[in-house]
Amino acid sequence: MNKSDTGKLGELETARHLRRNGYNIVAANYHSRFGELDIVAEDKKNLCFVEVKTRSPGQMFSPADSVTAAKRKKIVSTANLFLSQYPTKKNIRFDIAEVIVENDAVKSINLIENAFE
Prior knowledge:
Helices cover 30% and strands 42% of the residues. Strand 1 and strand 2 form a beta hairpin. It is α+β, with helices and mostly antiparallel strands. The protein has a five-stranded mixed beta sheet, sandwiched between helices. The model has no long low-confidence stretch (mean pLDDT 94). It has one domain (3-116): Trna Endonuclease, Chain: A, domain 1 (3-Layer(aba) Sandwich). The radius of gyration is 14 Å and the shape is globular. The protein has helices at 3-20, 69-85, and strands at 24-31, 36-42, 46-55, 91-102, 105-116. The chain has two helices and five strands.
């Protein structure tokens, strides 16, 4: 499985994980001039912008560590554009989903809520 396929698998499995945990998927792969939102999901109180990072086990750094300040800025800018098009009264939250894939299968998903602002 190549890197692109691994990333797509991570996003699909994260969306399934979120649905199983009571979230509604509002959008996936939302593009703007600033960047992309992997998943936009909502629960009863929150609208969540979820950045999915998929890695193989044994990496030196956690998947969340790859969400740099520059990447966070792009996500926030894209989220603001999304919100200007689709306003909400819900709380806004930025999450990171760390997905570990081994032998072309997802081993684990760790959802980090309120990962950044």
